UniProtKB/TrEMBL annotation:
PANTHER family: ARABINOGALACTAN ENDO-BETA-1,4-GALACTANASE A. This is Arabinogalactan endo-beta-1,4-galactanase. Its EC number is 3.2.1.89. Gene3D superfamilies: Glycosidases. It catalyses: The enzyme specifically hydrolyzes (1->4)-beta-D-galactosidic linkages in type I arabinogalactans. GO terms for molecular function: arabinogalactan endo-1,4-beta-galactosidase activity; glucosidase activity.
């Protein structure tokens, strides 16, 4: 009698364990697996550069969700699908914004929201882009050897401050829209490609010295211009520079975005096959008045970037989407005049 009851008890226990195990392995899709599904968002960067954030807040700007309720900007963006923040770094800006302390403050907020991070070194006291790559005032009289050291030291110093605060960016840009090099005239690519390559290598080595896991991005505008990209990256490769990711900017109009995106896909595909590089759209934007077209543009560009072979497409970033009422004269944001996101931001939603 005892033996029979014992066998029945063991049978019940085994059946109960099987039921519990099966239930635990069921996902909301009805599939079975041993471990929880990985977060699909974590594999692709849906980003926004919000470097103006602290300056806008200091000026009294507020941000509102679609329902009209005031919220922290990063919460609004996260609810729109944004999972990554991009922050520019200036060496010694006049007003302080985008210096190391300001970048740290914003990076802490991004980390608190569980967002990923792209750090964008301009190696300037102000804007660096295709039309201007001015040396920081403190570096203005340095010879080229000293410039390379300054690039390395500045990169290390900023990333070390972040690391001390337990913040490790996944990506770091060495230069911003360096279509013709950086730190002119010493590092102007059309004049001395070798110097530009050496500066990129200094930045690369600085990044890796602090965080070997951070991927280094070299960023060029006009992502549809294949000849420009081949000239820059052939030059960098032939002169010993190193990078992990090729970054692009895309600022089309409502009438030409489809053609530009097609050209961009051709260029992205070439960058993968020619250099084996991963590709990221570090900046994009369109006039706020063209929000519907902008949404279509972004969704299409995301799809094209994701279509690259071997998952070489890493993500896309809207540049300062929260700039509204033509903040600082900028009219390519994705928030309306009341401080709410336009339909363009819906492009980042699943």
């Amino acid at each position: 009698m005892f033996k029979k009851i014992k066998n029945v008890n063991w049978l019940c226990i085994i059946l109960l364990l099987l039921v519990i195990n099966t239930a635990c392995k069921k996902t909301i899709k009805g599939e079975t697996q041993i471990y929880p599904e990985p977060d699909p968002i974590g594999t692709y960067a849906l980003g926004a550069d919000v470097s103006w954030l602290t300056e806008m807040e200091a000026a009294g700007k507020k941000f509102y969700n679609a329902a009209g309720a005031q919220e922290d900007l990063l919460k609004i963006l996260k609810d729109k699908g944004i999972n990554t923040i991009r922050l520019r770094v200036w060496v010694n800006p006049t007003a302080g914004y985008c210096n190391t302390a300001d970048v740290l403050a914003k990076a802490k907020r991004a980390k608190a929201m569980n967002m990923r991070l792209l750090i964008d070194f301009h190696y300037s006291d102000s804007w660096a882009d295709p039309g201007q790559q001015n040396k920081p005032a403190a570096w203005a009289t340095q010879d080229f050897a000293a410039l390379k050291t300054s690039v390395y030291n500045h990169t290390v110093e900023v990333l070390t401050v972040l690391k001390t605060n337990k913040i490790v960016p996944e990506w770091v840009q060495v230069g911003n829209e360096t279509n013709n090099g950086m730190l002119w005239n010493d590092g102007k690519a059309s004049t001395n490609m070798k110097n530009f390559a050496d500066l990129v290598l200094s930045g690369y080595n600085g990044v890796k010295a602090v965080n070997s896991s951070s991927k280094v991005v070299v960023h060029i505008s006009n992502g549809y211009d294949n000849s420009l990209f081949r000239w820059i990256f052939d030059g960098l490769k032939n002169n010993g520079a190193k990078w992990d990711v090729i970054g692009m900017s895309m600022y089309p109009t409502a009438t030409d975005w489809s053609a530009k995106n097609t050209q961009c896909l051709t260029n992205m595909t070439d960058m993968v096959s020619r250099y084996g590089s991963e590709v990221m759209i570090c900046e994009l934007g369109m006039p706020v008045s063209e929000a519907v077209a902008c949404k279509a543009f972004i969704k299409d560009l995301i799809a094209k970037n994701k279509s690259l072979p071997n998952n070489k497409g890493l993500g896309v970033f809207y540049w300062e989407p929260q700039s509204y009422n033509s903040w600082s004269g900028y009219k390519l944001g994705a928030f309306d005049d009341t401080g709410k996101p336009t339909v363009a931001m819906d492009a980042f939603l699943p």
